[in-house]
Amino acid sequence: MSATKPYSFFQSVERSFDKAAKLTKWDLGILEQIKACNSVYQMRFPVKMDDGSIEVIEAYRVQHSQHKTPCKGGIRFSDEVNQDEVMALASLMTYKCAIVNVPFGGGKGGIKINPRNYSTYELEKITRRYTSELVKKNFIGPGIDVPAPDYGTGEREMSWIVDTYASLKPGEIDAAGCVTGKPITQGGVRGRKEATGLGVFFGIREVCNMEDVMKKLGLKTGVEGKTVVVQGLGNVGYHSAKFFREGGAKVIALAEYEGAIMNPNGLNEEEVFQHRKKTGSILNFPGATNLAKNTDALELECDILIPAALENVINGENAPRVKAKIIGEAANGPCTPEADEVFAQKGILCVPDMYLNAGGVTVSYFEWLKNLSHVRYGRMEKRFNENMNMKIINQMESLTGKTVGAEEKKSIAHGADEQELVHSGLEETMISATREIMELWHSNPDIPDMRTAAYVSAINKVATSYVELGIFP
Question: Are residues 68 and 126 in the same domain?
Answer without folding.
Answer: yes
